[in-house]
Amino acid sequence: MKLSIIIPYYRGEQYLRDCLAGIREGGYEDVEVIVCDDDPMDPLGTAASRNRGLERCSGDLVLFLDSDDYFLPGDIGRAVNSAERFPDSVIVLNLRGTFYCRDAVIEKRVPESYFDMEIPMAMRAVGLIIPRKLISQKRFPERFRYYSELTFMTELSEAAEFVRVSDISYYKRIHNDPINCPSLSQEESPVRIGQFCSSFYDANKLGKKAGLQNLALCAGYFFEKCLTGDNGPKGLGRSERLKRDDCAAVQKALEGIDIGVIKNMPDKGQKKIIEALRNGDMGKAQKIANRIVFKKKKKGLFGSKDQWRLLFYRKLALRMRVRKDMIFFESFNGDLYGDSPRYIYEKYIENAYDRKFVWSIKKKGRKAIPGSHRCVKPGTLRYMFALARAGILVSNMRQPSWYVKRSGQFFFETWHGTPLKRLVFDMEEVYTASPGYKKIFYDQSRKWDYLLSGNTYSTDIFEHAFMMPKERIVQLGYPRNDRLKASADESVKRNLREKLGLPADKKIILYAPTWRDNKFRGSGDYEMKLPFDKDFIKKVPDCFFMLRMHYFVSETDGVGGVFGDNAVDMSGYDDINDLYLASDMLITDYSSVFFDYALLERPIIFYAYDEDEYKGELRGLYFDMESYCPGPVVRTQDELAGALNMDPDRFGPYLERYKATGDFFTGPDDAKASQRAVEFIEEKYGSVASEEKRYD
Ligand code: C2G
Which of 579, 593, 596 to mutate to test the pocket of ligand 1 (most atoms within 8 A of CB)? Predict the structure, then answer.
């Protein structure tokens, strides 16, 4: 039997590649593929594209395949075999949702690369193998951009049996970037609900039996999401919230549903919602939906402790006045007292500004924070109240997703490094903990008043990587680099070595790698296996190592096991600047640490033992390391040992080549970035503070 595959396509070449690969490797030859232009500027949209495909196809069977969805190897052939066993039925394939590309799913790059999903039959035309004779005269209503499947699928439900095949899956790709590249189901649109109601109304007139039952399920599914605000998996779906003025259209759409059909609805909550909406009682429907949400969220009798804290935050803290004299500082989510927020804070103290300082610190007493301040522990009520009341916030990471930006607050984001690894909207795949990362990042970064950039290179990247308007990026140099630009002489090195207890007769090597996105263990917690064999240390006998794992890496697999007593673990040390200044050489990989370390003009080695995976699959890099990095790139332990034993003079050409780029990567060569940052904050905050309204 010949299979016609109809693919509406507008954009997302990376998605189309996967879609066509699934056909190429589908294990079935007798296929015609019809790709139809689906330009969203053409108001007809997907319905028209599918109709054009139907008019042109000649196969015995038809499969509608969205261009961002795909099949795994051999599955199309298996699906056609199923259809040959039921020539007069519609074969319904299993639906799986995934946030990842086809290779990531095939190679199982992340623990749970897909999940089974259920879309009411009346709403889905994809993932079905349909005998063409059943639909040769049917068309999708082209006046609907959304939900054009309802009438098409209702008619089809009346015309044929549907046979489910659960061991063959259609992978429905959920776009991880709904801001720049929303799928149809992610598009925000004021007409979505209206179109659902109109399409539903038309479909209900066509339904007789099976079709009507499917439609009732579809109404329950749709309106429950609209009332509960369920934004789909990881918040990457889309659902419009029902508004009071939708009530009449909703009631008209549902008036045709037979009471008996509603009574047969399996989901009690949805049944009650449909009954209420059919009676025009939006308030009652909303109450039912709220109970559904509460049941889903409830943990224990009164919910979790965090929910109580958030309740206090929303109902009490946010109603208290913003304190213009208070500044809140946070580095690395409270893990360390370091990075640019530290240097901005210490400059505030040096200039004796009369402000109340608050530091977010997870483990109090880790580091004597100078000056008069108080500490709050992330996640506590005191932390939440500080976030709610501080007039100025200075952070180097993203703030909690529950944080509400208030009028009269000024948020100065310093970020935490000059990027080599691709960031946020410049990443194709997102293997970090949350596939919703891009949308979450977008929402959080809109709350920043200004984003600090250390140099021109970062400014250019932040604009597209963060979708940050250029006027919100302020290029002042990096406060955390002031110390590296000011005091890098031998006496500083010697004093720090004594302070850190490092051997005076060894070459001190700082190993500071970045984290690996696919080694996820828990929120903000990634594992890292040290890429050294036990005998590595014998190859570099005059070296002593300071191991400095990324703050996302909670533990390494035993420093002693690899380095014996030739190493010390400095992962918890607050300010990496001390480690830079105390060391003779740096080993890193794709981390931004090298941009800072290069200011010392000391040897750097890039140990890129997993470069292909990191560049090709995980994150990608902004430039070729061999071409621009201020040091040799090595990929094996022998090469690394060779570089460590190399005469330091041989690192000169790498450093010279890097220095030739001037201040493009390094920013202004004075040590005044902290001062500029404080002056900028004080200047800008003056205007913000006057905006404050009593309540938000
Ligand atoms: N860092 C550290 N120790 C490491 C690695 C990093 O203290 N072993 C600190 C450094 O200050 C570094 C910052 O964390 O500049 C960012 O670390 P990266 O390894 O670059 O990784 P990431 O946190 O993903 O930030 O623009 C920077 C990028 O956003 C990368």
Answer: 593
Look at residue 687 and tell me if it is in a domain: no
Give the distance (Å) from ligand 1 centre to CA of residue 106. Answer: 30
- Which CATH number is 370's domain given? 3.40.50.11820
**Residue 449 CA to ligand 1 centre (angstroms):** 23
Query: What pLDDT sits at residue 111?
Result: 84
Residue 49 sits in the same domain as residue 152 = yes
Phi-psi region of 188 (alpha: psi -120 to 50; beta: other; left: phi over 0): beta
Whose CA is closest to atom 12 on ligand 1? 593
Q: Are 334 and 377 in contact (CB under 8 A)?
A: yes
Ramachandran class of 472: left when φ > 0, alpha when ψ lies in -120 to 50, beta otherwise: alpha
512 CA from centroid of ligand 1 (Å) = 9
Residue 690, pLDDT > 70, answer no
Cα–chain center distance at 54: 37
302 inside domain: no
The answer to whether residues 388 and 524 belong to one domain is: no
The answer to whether residues 461 and 499 belong to one domain is: no
Ligand 1 atom nearest residue 595's Cα:
15
Pocket test residue of 427, 437, 514 for ligand 1, highest count of atoms within 8 A of CB: 514
Could you tell me if 169 and 195 lie in one domain?
A: no
Distance 429 CA to ligand 1 centre (A): 20
Q: How far is the CA of 619 from the centre of ligand 1 (A)?
A: 14
Q: Is 16 among the domain residues?
A: yes
Q: Quote the ligand 1 centre to 484 CA distance (angstroms).
A: 16
**What percent of the chain is helix, strand and coil (3-state, nearest 5)?**
45, 15, 40
- What is the token pair recorded at 101? 């590309």
Residues flanking ligand 1, CB < 6 Å: 339, 415-419, 421, 423, 512-514, 548-550, 576, 591-593
Which structure tokens are listed for 660? 């030739």
Q: Which domain holds residue 116?
A: 1-177
Q: Is the CA virtual torsion 652, 658, 660, 666 positive or negative?
A: negative
Distance from C-alpha of 449 to C-alpha of 474, rounded to nearest angstrom: 10
Ligand 1 atom closest to Cα of residue 418: 26
Tally of domains within the chain: 4
Same domain, yes or no: 396 and 257: no
Same domain, 321 and 221: no
Q: What is the pLDDT of residues 364-380, one digit of tens each?
A: 665 679 999 999 999 99
| CATH number of the structural domain spanning residue 63 | 3.90.550.10
Written as six digits, the tokens of 574 are 């607050």
Are both 33 and 166 inside the same structural domain? yes
Tell me, yes or no, whether 82 and 159 share the same domain. Answer: yes
Cα–Cα distance between 627 and 623 in angstroms, integer? 8
Among 397, 483, 550, the mutation site with the greatest number of ligand 1 atoms within 8 A of its Cβ is 550
**Which residue, 255, 271, 297, sits at the end of a domain?**
297
pLDDT digits (tens, 9 = 90+) for 88-141: 999 999 999 999 999 999 999 888 899 999 999 999 999 999 999 999 999 999
Q: Measured between alpha carbons, how far is 411 from 394 in angstroms, rounded to an integer?
A: 6
* 350 within domain boundaries: yes
| CA-wise closest residue to 514 among 589, 585, 586 | 589
Q: How far is the CA of 49 from the centre of ligand 1 (A)?
A: 46
- Beta-sheet pairing, 356-360 with 323-330: parallel
Domain boundary among 177, 202, 233: 177
Q: Using 50, 70 and 90 to split pLDDT, how confident is the model at 695?
A: very low
Give the global pTM. Answer: 0.91
